[in-house]
Design goal:
single chain; 9% helix; Neuraminidase
Length: 276
């Protein structure tokens, strides 16, 4: 079996495992998260970040993550770079690098000195076959306890969807990607992690009215045992954000217009759940 065939077999195998996990979750986990009633957040600034504390209090704070641009990739898509500081002080970044045919490769690299220099980038996922060029949602990245977690949207040979990849050695290497969900279009995704708890929130890539889906892993991202809706189903839900701390999880989305106008018709909603 060739390397591409093996990679595809691994991807399909993970889809099957994800489907089994989803069936098991639906059978025993209809009430697996104790959700609070949804609330309106006081700020919906584009550069704010969702956080939740151990008492289930969610809020938006100014995003103080370092704005970086990894060097050495002339095909880097401007605006697609996401970076996070690891526990040891190093930075890890991920971005889309466009090919000649307008498909893209998902790359990641580590900066040991917090930005001035970068180790050679690694290929996280090379399966994209779209023609979107750089007109695609940026990847989302989180890091905790030596693990790096990346959620992203692309189109492989099976279709468009949301995918997940992680590193277990501080960005030194990446495991084969797993599929979160397939659908019809490319959509934004967000990821958060706290040690073994990993949460991916995403705009459902199918359906006429956008909703936010949610996938949760309690074993460091190896299997996502919970898959369900993150938003409430009332109106459209776009531009997801997610936060997790121990057993507390917060999911946020814009309800109404995807971009607030002068009358503020788009509202950022959040609800908090406790993992059982």
């Amino acid at each position: 079996m060739s390397v591409p065939e093996l990679s595809q077999a691994i991807r399909i195998g993970r889809v099957v495992l994800a489907a089994v996990a989803s069936v098991l979750a639906s059978a025993c986990d209809a009430s697996g998260i104790a959700w609070t009633d949804p609330m309106t957040l006081s700020s919906a600034a584009a550069d704010s970040r969702l956080v939740v504390d151990g008492k289930g209090r969610a809020r938006l704070i100014a995003d103080t993550s370092v704005s970086v641009k990894p060097t050495g990739d002339p095909r880097l898509c401007s605006g697609s770079v996401g970076a996070v500081r690891q526990d040891d002080g190093t930075l890890v970044a991920t971005w889309w690098s466009v090919r000649d045919d307008s498909s893209a490769v998902l790359l990641a690299a580590v900066s040991p000195d917090a930005g001035p220099s970068w180790r050679p980038p690694l290929r996280v996922d090379t399966a994209d076959v779209s023609v979107a060029g750089c007109d695609r949602p940026p990847p989302s990245i989180s890091a905790s306890a030596g693990f790096v977690h990346i959620a992203y949207s692309m189109r492989d040979r099976q279709g468009a969807g949301v995918f997940y990849a992680h590193s277990m050695d501080r960005g030194g290497s990446y495991e084969p990607a797993a599929t979160i969900v397939y659908g019809d279009r490319l959509t934004p995704a967000a990821i958060a992690a706290d040690k073994g708890s990993v949460a991916v929130a995403y705009e459902d890539p199918s359906g006429a009215t956008p909703q936010v889906g949610l996938a949760i892993s309690r074993d460091w991202g190896h299997i996502f045992g919970y898959r369900g809706r993150g938003s409430t189903g009332v109106g459209s839900a776009t531009l997801p954000r997610v936060a997790v701390t121990s057993r507390e999880i917060a999911v946020s989305w814009m309800q109404g217009s995807s971009a607030a106008d002068a009358n503020g018709r788009a509202t950022r909603i959040v609800r908090v759940g406790r993992l059982q």
